Amino acid sequence: MQAQSEVHTVNPKLERIANILRLVSWVSLWLQLGLGAASVLMLIFAISGRSFNQAVTPTPGAPGVVPGVVPGVNYNQETIPGVNISIFWGVCGIIALLFTSYLAFRITRFAKRLRHPDSSLHPKKADVMKVLRIAVIAGFVGMLLTILGGGSGLGVLLSKSIAQPQGVAIYNPTRIIRSLDIFVAMASMTGITAHYVGTAAALGLFNWLHPEL
Question: Could you give the CA distance from residue 79 to residue 157 in angstroms, rounded to a whole number?
């Protein structure tokens, strides 16, 4: 009986480390997934709104053309370049966020193995630190991508706000700040927050675990 109880005894220090790893990783994972889902929805609204705007663009000589707008010019196409770039970087940031979320999930698996009574199943310190290091690097890369997207989106909003005449009716659609422009900028800001959460969690665990394991 004594030998059997010793087999099922887990080192208190390792159990504490495993509990902290599991808690921080799960919190980071769910926050990243929640913020990432919000960012994806905003990008979907922006892309669908862009497609709708292009679908209703008046054709040359069509009735009901807004006065002051040159017929035959697709203004939606003219206003999109900055938004297109922002959407592209936003999608790249979401792909990076999926990767960092997967790494956070891997840390939870390491924590589960660390609590196992059989020490031969415990993960190696080098493996845990490697995953955390990759998560930190991927988080910084993801933040850079979403910052580029956010900068492009804010640049579009700034240029349109400057181009809007004060106290004059706006007939040129290129000067109108549309909801899809705001959705793209907000999606990038949400993505930056998600990457910050994942990077902060991974970096904190990396610094804390280095002397512990």
Answer: 11
- DSSP track, 68-87: TS-TT--HHHHH-HHHHHHH
Rounded (10°) angle between helices 81-114 and 125-163: 160
Inter-residue contact 199 to 143 (CB < 8 Å):
yes
pLDDT given for residue 173 in this prediction: 54
How many Å is the maximal CA-CA distance in the chain?
Answer: 92
CA distances from 59 to 14, 15, 80, 109, 134 (A): 69, 68, 18, 57, 51
User: Which DSSP string corresponds to 15-66?
Assistant: HHHHHHHHHHHHHHHHHHHHHHHHHHHHHHHHHHHHHHHHHTPPPTT-TTPP
Q: What is the pLDDT of residue 176?
A: 63
Q: How far apart are CA 18 and CA 25, in angstroms?
A: 10
Decide if 13 contacts 122 (C-beta within 8 A): no
Residue numbers of the chain with a pLDDT score lower than 50:
1-7, 55-79, 168-169
| Structural contact between residues 99 and 137, judged by C-beta atoms closer than 8 angstroms | no
pLDDT digits (tens, 9 = 90+) for 56-103: 444 444 444 444 444 444 444 444 556 778 888 889 999 999 999 999
The closest of 152, 149, 146 to 198, measured between CA atoms, is 146
Read off the tokens for 200. Answer: 């902060």
Q: Rounded to 5 degrees, what are φ and ψ at 133? A: -65, -45
